[in-house]
Design brief:
It is built from ten helices and eight strands. The protein has 324 residues and is of the alpha/beta class.
Length: 324
């Protein structure tokens, strides 16, 4: 069971401390930077940590959250724990993330599972990898659950189990939550970063994006209405949120799936995890802890563990299901 570190029983405090706290990983080797072709005109970047015999080892695929990258602390924390357990770790940057605006003319969205599938296929074909576990955070958690629900349509994808940490599986509900006045600081920060990225994107591809509305965008919903949804053919944000939400396909999951969430998460409402699509699926296990904040879960450290409970729990779960 998760017990918060002293002084971190408030969800906002947990979220901010976990986000701002410095972490070092001296045992983690330098990664290999690898590009993957995921569409005719699109590449994505992953940072890969390999075992000496990579084909014999299981492989973790890590998926970051909104405006994250392969370099954020929780992605590197996952890689560190996975690598020390004898796993390969592949940390995927979503389109345009991690300084990769030049690799794709398009944008990413919250349900774009084509890219992780393409990466898994490429790793299987070129590196002989046969056992994958996927861990996703927040928006990456939605991708992870949606990927699991779609596996029946892609039997060649060798994913043995998945873990989603504070996933935004009902996108409209989660956007409404972050629009609350108590979350104005998070909301402002996300929108500011989205707008910065949009400006960088337009510098690279000036003929593809009209920035005339950008200065009037002050919410995630408005950004998705003006840019994300039209660009991907959804029309508007409401249709985009419906079609990209993992909850729509959660009843189809047939691989072991663990969802870790916190009742005091300020931006992802715990109520969405009581949906019958999850509760009625025997392949899905949901753990909602009283504390943990948004992707925080900082517990007291021990000699063997640094206290980042969600990372350790995710790898414990995947180690069990992959070796079963």
């Amino acid at each position: 069971p998760f017990r918060p570190r002293r002084g971190l029983s408030n969800g906002h405090v947990m979220t901010l401390v976990a986000w701002a706290r410095r972490r070092d990983f001296p045992a983690l080797p330098a990664p290999e930077a690898r590009l993957f072709d995921v569409a005719p005109d699109t590449r994505v970047l992953a940072h890969c940590y390999w075992q000496a015999d990579r084909a014999a080892a299981p492989t973790l695929l890590g998926l970051h959250g909104l405006e994250g990258s392969s370099s954020v602390h929780y992605m590197r924390g996952l890689a560190d724990k996975a690598w020390r357990r004898g796993w390969n770790a592949v940390l995927l940057n979503q389109r345009n993330c991690g300084g990769t605006e030049h690799l794709s003319p398009g944008l990413y969205h919250s349900g774009l599972t084509d890219d992780p599938r393409a990466v898994i296929r490429a790793l299987a074909a070129t590196d002989g990898l046969t056992r994958f576990g996927v861990v996703g955070y927040s928006l990456g958690g939605n991708l992870t659950v949606k990927l699991a629900g779609e596996l029946a349509d892609h039997p060649d994808i060798a994913v043995r189990g998945v873990v989603a940490i504070c996933p935004t599986i009902d996108l409209d509900r989660c956007v409404r939550e972050i629009e609350r006045r108590s979350n104005i600081a998070y909301h402002f920060n996300f929108v500011r970063n989205l707008k910065k990225r949009m400006r960088r994107k337009a510098e690279r591809h000036p003929d593809l994006f009209d920035l005339s509305e950008l200065d009037r965008v002050w919410t995630i919903r408005r950004f998705d209405d003006v840019y994300t949804a039209p660009h991907h053919g959804f029309g508007d944000a409401a249709r985009y949120y419906h079609r990209a939400s993992a909850i729509r396909v959660a009843d189809r999951i047939r691989v072991p799936t663990l969802i870790l969430a916190a009742a005091d998460d300020p931006v992802v409402p715990a109520g969405q995890f009581a949906d019958p699509a999850l509760a009625g699926n025997p392949y899905v296990r949901v753990e909602v802890t009283p504390h943990g904040g948004h992707c925080g879960f900082l517990a007291p450290p021990s000699r063997e563990d640094d206290g980042y409970w969600a990372e350790t729990t995710a790898l414990d779960f995947l180690s069990t299901v992959i070796s079963a």
